[in-house]
Here is the input.
Amino acid sequence: MEFHYQHENQEHHIQLEPSGNGSYTALIGDKTYKVEVKRLQSGYMMLLINGKRLHAYTTTSRNAQTGLQKRHVALVDREARLYELAKPQASNRRKTVSAGSGSLTAQMPGQVTQVLVNEGDSVTQGQPLMLLEAMKMEIRLTAPQEGRVTRLFVKQGDTVERGQQLAEVESE
Amino acid sequence: MFNKILIANRGEIAARITRACHELGIYVVAVFSDADANALHTRLADEAVYIGGPTPADSYLRGDRLIAAALETGCEAIHPGFGFLSESPEFAQAVTDAGLIFIGPSADTIYKMGIKTEARSIMQAAGVPVVPGFQSDDATDADFQDAADKIGYPVMVKAAGGGGGKGIRIVHQQADLLDSIAAARREAQNAFGDSTVFLEKYIDRGRHIEFQVLADKFGSTVHLFERECSIQRRHQKIIEETPSPFLNEQTRQKMGQAAVAAAQAVHYVNAGTVEFIVAETGEFYFLEMNTRLQVEHPITELVTGVDIVKMQIQIAVGERLPFTQADLSQRGHAIECRVYAEDPSNNFLPAIGPVLRTIEPAGPGVRVDAGVVSGDEVTIYYDPMIAKLIVYAESRPDAIRKMDWALAQYVILGLTTNLQFLRDVILHPAFVMGETSTHFIDEFLTPWHPPQAALPDEALIVAALSDLLIPAGQPTLQSIEENGDGDLYSPWGRADSFRMGQPI
Here is the structure.
């Protein structure tokens, strides 16, 4: 899937796709990187990028006034290098499961392991609607707002593509 | 030993004192303002007492509330730290009057050292060299001219009631003296309502070198050698080191003896610092005495092996110094850098906000005295210092290398800091050569710009990977509190029968 960031007024794009066993393929411009996640814990990760080791710390912040989200990254080898990447608002909406429209889409390819609601059910904000398994991880899809489940587009066992619509929740 | 003390301070130094107390088995009562309810020093203490609003005048400077808090919580003593009320003779007296022990010198000593002309005459009487000068209420123009000739140009014309740089003139030749005196008088009259001026020798490119002293209640006084504090920005020290690369052994001995004499002249008890100005010729003069713990005390601790804060407490309890001057020596080299939330490329303007993540360097000879760690906030109300980074190594070049490594490894996410600037200072050829002066930053590093580097692809990969794997965000400060189950992908959150060590 694609991610967009801003760094010092420049747009940057990266495409990141899982390639199994905790590995990913990253595409930046015309460059391709093989990324292996060796360790991942509370804001720290150790990666092998094309076989080269990288330690990194990362966290996010959100400006309460502007709503601007930033991702802060520290790359640490012989010296720490710090970067602040702004997340353009549009791609935030696309990436975040529970943001806004009432329409729920799969944020990564995977399989529906469980559907927890039926069409017509009333749901509260944050209530889990279904469970997806992707990249050996379980992801909960939650209701973005209080309302009624008007449509379910998938059933248990279905394989879904990234961006595929899964359900619709309309506020009453 | 005390059972419980109150620390009338905040931030890094309150945390430092708290740790010393806990080591000695003493319970600690912290005080906090509205801005510090969750601050590190409040969290570390055994008890914490709210003392008022975020402005210092409404909290950390409220001696009455501090003393009341100490009495209510059953404390036996108050440690003032530095800044705030640490050099207030009224506060020291009020603490004593309340039946508590003030961990510091007597109110009388603090008072005497706080008045520059008084301190100057006490030191002169004790044979401690003071900057040559001339002061007389009924001096004629001719008297001033004679005196200036005797002192030797350049001389400084200073307002007796002055401060803040007002009423000061630097005069390089006799022809300008009388005009400068008249101008200084006018300025002093306007600013302080007192036109009295005096003359002092102007020490150009002087170095600020200070000596740490310790004195117990039984008259035993020692010095713990010098600290060189010449690297300053906006008249505030940012890098200190010991030993001074400038002093030879003979001058060091003489200055140490002068520092001890200065302390004894006012019957000093507890830890204090005697500040000297040292001319390029090697002559040194008493400037002032700081009657408290200094920010930069750790470098002295590292080269002498003496824990100054613990000594302060032991002296206040009434213990004898466990060593004499002959037992003390400097070994190796220590440097301290003050890590600030500030922008060195923009006039060192403070940076305010939450500190999202700190990763402190660690290793042999690396010490971090932090007041702000991951999750804490730098507010507009107090000094924006995040931490003091102190290194100790066998030699000065070795210590510079270690400091460079430690600064390079220090990760602070969320705020602009001076980490890169500090690296540029200590790696500057002039600093490496030991050519430090109070003009250093103006001369060599103004203006300063952070190195510009293009965004490396690795940073994009880390960002995207994090956003992919943790879509809700590595919990931000707010979401940690608001959202108990922030980690969507924890194996412990799985609803299946997954168990550690069981066949899947």
Summary: The interface with chain A takes residues 354, 356-357, 359, 408-414, 453, 455-469, 471-474, 476-478, 488-489, 493-495 of chain B (CB under 8 Å). The radius of gyration of chain B is 26 Å. Residues 112 and 118 of chain B are 6 Å apart (CA to CA).
